[in-house]
Design brief:
Helices cover 44% and strands 9% of the residues. The protein is globular and about 45 Å long. The relative contact order is 0.09.
């Protein structure tokens, strides 16, 4: 497998040479809530209320994540009555999620124990915008 800029859908690269489209894809998958939403949608279509119950976040937050995922072309929706049913827009996501599970199974707890990205890693404090005083 090669992940070159042409395969990633464009010629733009980051300063270190990684395809910017691939960086954006993995960044979109790197948010815990968005990943949980995608994993739930991998099981089948869902309404926002179902996703709210699944991820335990406010409806507005889930809707914002769905909007992000839709803008990235990863999810889509169809109307059902007054609600919308969300689903994975690309079947390749199922393969990507399955590959991630296989990789995690193969590496054991090494990723989870990673001092930079694992569960014990220090989480940076949220930026408090507007408080430059």
């Amino acid at each position: 497998m090669t992940m070159n800029s042409a395969a990633a859908g464009g010629s733009a690269t980051t300063s270190c040479g990684a395809p910017s489209a691939a960086v954006a894809l993995f960044r979109s998958l790197g948010d815990p809530a968005r990943l949980a939403i995608l994993m739930r949608l991998a099981q089948g279509e869902a309404k926002v209320v179902d996703l709210v119950a699944c991820v335990g976040l406010a409806q507005s937050t889930v809707s914002a994540h769905l909007s992000c995922l839709r803008d990235c072309g990863l999810v889509d929706s169809r109307p059902q009555g007054r609600a919308s049913l969300y689903f994975l827009a690309r079947p390749e996501l199922l393969d990507l999620l399955a590959s991630a599970e296989q990789l995690l199974a193969a590496t054991g707890e090494a990723v989870d124990l990673c001092p930079t990205y694992g569960t014990g890693a220090a989480v940076p404090a949220p930026k408090n915008e507007g408080s430059d005083r």
